[in-house]
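Before a colleague's protein record goes any further, I have to sign it off. Would you go through it and say whether the fold makes sense for this chain? Take the sequence as given and treat only the C-alpha coordinates as open to question. The record follows directly below this note.
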Amino acid sequence: MTKLELVFVPLPAVGHLLSAVEFCKLLVGRDDRFSITLLIMKLPFDDAAVTNYINSNSFSGSIRLAHLPHLDMKPLQFPSPSAIFEIMEKQKLLVRDAVHQLMNRPETGRLAGIVVDLLCISMMDVADELDVPSYVFVTSSAASLALMFISKPCTTTRAWISLSSLTRILSLWSQAVSTRFLPDSSLLCGWIRTVGG
Protein backbone atom coordinates (compact mmCIF):
# COMPACT_ATOMS: atom_id res chain seq x y z
CA MET A 1 0.00 0.00 0.00
CA THR A 2 1.47 3.32 -1.12
CA LYS A 3 1.45 6.11 1.46
CA LEU A 4 0.15 9.45 0.27
CA GLU A 5 1.61 12.58 1.83
CA LEU A 6 -0.44 15.74 2.16
CA VAL A 7 1.08 19.01 3.27
CA PHE A 8 -1.27 21.43 5.04
CA VAL A 9 -0.48 25.14 5.22
CA PRO A 10 -2.89 26.65 7.75
CA LEU A 11 -2.94 30.27 8.80
CA PRO A 12 -1.16 30.21 12.17
CA ALA A 13 -4.14 31.55 14.10
CA VAL A 14 -5.79 29.25 16.62
CA GLY A 15 -9.17 28.98 14.86
CA HIS A 16 -7.56 28.13 11.54
CA LEU A 17 -5.01 25.74 13.03
CA LEU A 18 -7.61 23.93 15.14
CA SER A 19 -9.90 23.45 12.13
CA ALA A 20 -7.04 22.16 9.99
CA VAL A 21 -5.85 19.71 12.67
CA GLU A 22 -9.35 18.35 13.22
CA PHE A 23 -9.80 17.89 9.48
CA CYS A 24 -6.45 16.10 9.29
CA LYS A 25 -7.54 13.76 12.10
CA LEU A 26 -10.68 12.92 10.14
CA LEU A 27 -8.66 12.21 6.98
CA VAL A 28 -6.14 9.86 8.59
CA GLY A 29 -8.92 8.23 10.62
CA ARG A 30 -10.82 7.34 7.47
CA ASP A 31 -7.94 6.28 5.26
CA ASP A 32 -4.68 5.00 6.72
CA ARG A 33 -2.86 5.62 3.43
CA PHE A 34 -2.69 9.33 4.31
CA SER A 35 0.21 10.86 6.12
CA ILE A 36 -0.06 14.58 6.83
CA THR A 37 2.48 17.26 7.66
CA LEU A 38 1.19 20.60 8.92
CA LEU A 39 3.59 23.46 8.28
CA ILE A 40 3.43 25.89 11.18
CA MET A 41 4.46 29.39 10.20
CA LYS A 42 5.76 31.83 12.77
CA LEU A 43 3.97 35.15 12.89
CA PRO A 44 5.91 38.33 13.61
CA PHE A 45 4.41 38.28 17.12
CA ASP A 46 3.77 35.57 19.69
CA ASP A 47 0.33 34.02 19.73
CA ALA A 48 -0.11 32.29 23.09
CA ALA A 49 -3.33 30.58 21.97
CA VAL A 50 -1.52 28.84 19.08
CA THR A 51 1.39 27.83 21.30
CA ASN A 52 -0.95 26.49 23.99
CA TYR A 53 -3.00 24.56 21.43
CA ILE A 54 0.09 22.93 19.91
CA ASN A 55 1.55 22.07 23.32
CA SER A 56 -1.72 20.65 24.63
CA ASN A 57 -2.24 18.20 21.76
CA SER A 58 -0.51 14.97 20.99
CA PHE A 59 -0.21 14.19 17.30
CA SER A 60 -0.25 10.65 15.96
CA GLY A 61 2.43 9.22 13.71
CA SER A 62 0.26 10.01 10.69
CA ILE A 63 0.03 13.71 11.56
CA ARG A 64 3.21 15.68 12.08
CA LEU A 65 3.95 19.31 12.71
CA ALA A 66 6.86 21.03 11.01
CA HIS A 67 7.71 24.41 12.50
CA LEU A 68 9.07 26.86 9.97
CA PRO A 69 11.87 29.22 11.00
CA HIS A 70 11.02 32.64 12.32
CA LEU A 71 11.27 35.46 9.81
CA ASP A 72 12.60 38.83 10.82
CA MET A 73 9.83 41.20 9.88
CA LYS A 74 8.84 44.67 10.88
CA PRO A 75 5.77 44.83 13.13
CA LEU A 76 2.57 44.67 11.11
CA GLN A 77 -0.97 45.81 11.73
CA PHE A 78 -2.51 42.36 12.25
CA PRO A 79 -5.02 41.05 11.25
CA SER A 80 -5.33 43.49 8.37
CA PRO A 81 -5.60 41.92 4.92
CA SER A 82 -2.39 43.58 3.76
CA ALA A 83 -0.49 42.20 6.78
CA ILE A 84 -1.71 38.65 6.08
CA PHE A 85 -0.77 39.01 2.42
CA GLU A 86 2.71 40.33 3.26
CA ILE A 87 3.33 37.52 5.77
CA MET A 88 2.27 34.87 3.24
CA GLU A 89 4.49 36.30 0.53
CA LYS A 90 7.51 36.25 2.84
CA GLN A 91 6.72 32.69 3.97
CA LYS A 92 6.60 31.18 0.46
CA LEU A 93 10.32 30.44 0.31
CA LEU A 94 10.23 28.73 3.72
CA VAL A 95 7.21 26.65 2.71
CA ARG A 96 8.85 25.64 -0.57
CA ASP A 97 12.06 24.62 1.24
CA ALA A 98 10.08 22.62 3.83
CA VAL A 99 8.16 20.77 1.12
CA HIS A 100 11.44 20.03 -0.74
CA GLN A 101 12.96 18.60 2.46
CA LEU A 102 9.84 16.52 3.03
CA MET A 103 9.91 15.15 -0.52
CA ASN A 104 13.56 14.10 -0.10
CA ARG A 105 12.98 12.07 3.07
CA PRO A 106 12.91 8.34 2.31
CA GLU A 107 10.04 7.65 4.73
CA THR A 108 7.78 10.21 3.05
CA GLY A 109 5.12 8.79 0.78
CA ARG A 110 4.24 10.20 -2.61
CA LEU A 111 3.30 13.87 -2.29
CA ALA A 112 -0.38 13.90 -3.21
CA GLY A 113 -0.96 17.60 -2.73
CA ILE A 114 -0.60 20.79 -0.78
CA VAL A 115 -3.70 21.95 1.10
CA VAL A 116 -3.74 25.67 1.81
CA ASP A 117 -5.92 27.73 4.10
CA LEU A 118 -8.08 30.19 2.17
CA LEU A 119 -6.12 33.05 3.74
CA CYS A 120 -2.86 31.40 2.61
CA ILE A 121 -4.04 31.01 -0.96
CA SER A 122 -0.88 32.56 -2.40
CA MET A 123 0.90 29.36 -1.27
CA MET A 124 -0.70 27.69 -4.27
CA ASP A 125 2.20 29.23 -6.20
CA VAL A 126 4.52 26.87 -4.31
CA ALA A 127 2.44 23.87 -5.38
CA ASP A 128 2.48 25.10 -8.98
CA GLU A 129 6.25 25.54 -8.85
CA LEU A 130 6.67 21.98 -7.53
CA ASP A 131 4.11 20.63 -10.02
CA VAL A 132 1.95 19.28 -7.20
CA PRO A 133 -1.85 19.54 -6.97
CA SER A 134 -3.12 22.18 -4.56
CA TYR A 135 -6.38 22.32 -2.65
CA VAL A 136 -8.03 25.11 -0.65
CA PHE A 137 -9.28 24.47 2.87
CA VAL A 138 -11.92 26.91 4.12
CA THR A 139 -12.10 27.16 7.90
CA SER A 140 -15.24 29.26 8.00
CA SER A 141 -18.80 28.20 7.40
CA ALA A 142 -20.36 27.80 3.98
CA ALA A 143 -22.51 30.84 4.75
CA SER A 144 -19.43 32.99 5.30
CA LEU A 145 -17.96 31.75 2.05
CA ALA A 146 -21.24 32.53 0.30
CA LEU A 147 -21.11 36.06 1.71
CA MET A 148 -17.70 36.48 0.09
CA PHE A 149 -19.01 35.28 -3.26
CA ILE A 150 -22.08 37.50 -3.33
CA SER A 151 -19.84 40.37 -2.30
CA LYS A 152 -17.29 39.69 -5.02
CA PRO A 153 -18.19 42.80 -7.04
CA CYS A 154 -17.18 44.90 -4.04
CA THR A 155 -14.77 47.52 -5.35
CA THR A 156 -15.63 50.40 -3.06
CA THR A 157 -17.28 50.69 0.30
CA ARG A 158 -20.25 52.25 -1.51
CA ALA A 159 -21.07 48.76 -2.81
CA TRP A 160 -21.80 47.84 0.79
CA ILE A 161 -24.16 50.68 1.64
CA SER A 162 -27.24 48.59 0.90
CA LEU A 163 -25.87 45.78 3.09
CA SER A 164 -25.49 48.09 6.05
CA SER A 165 -29.20 48.75 6.21
CA LEU A 166 -30.60 47.49 9.50
CA THR A 167 -33.75 46.25 7.82
CA ARG A 168 -32.06 44.05 5.25
CA ILE A 169 -31.88 40.41 6.27
CA LEU A 170 -29.41 38.00 4.70
CA SER A 171 -30.70 34.54 3.95
CA LEU A 172 -27.29 32.84 3.81
CA TRP A 173 -27.68 31.29 7.24
CA SER A 174 -30.33 28.78 8.28
CA GLN A 175 -31.53 31.42 10.75
CA ALA A 176 -32.00 34.91 9.35
CA VAL A 177 -29.28 37.35 10.39
CA SER A 178 -29.61 41.10 10.30
CA THR A 179 -26.76 42.91 8.57
CA ARG A 180 -26.13 44.92 11.74
CA PHE A 181 -24.27 41.81 12.96
CA LEU A 182 -21.92 41.78 9.97
CA PRO A 183 -18.39 43.19 10.19
CA ASP A 184 -17.85 46.83 9.37
CA SER A 185 -18.24 47.26 5.62
CA SER A 186 -14.77 48.69 5.09
CA LEU A 187 -13.16 45.76 6.92
CA LEU A 188 -15.23 43.20 5.05
CA CYS A 189 -14.66 44.85 1.69
CA GLY A 190 -10.89 44.94 2.31
CA TRP A 191 -10.82 41.24 3.14
CA ILE A 192 -12.87 40.39 0.07
CA ARG A 193 -10.55 42.37 -2.23
CA THR A 194 -7.45 40.76 -0.68
CA VAL A 195 -8.62 37.16 -0.35
CA GLY A 196 -11.17 36.94 -3.10
CA GLY A 197 -8.93 38.44 -5.74
The radius of gyration is 18 Å.
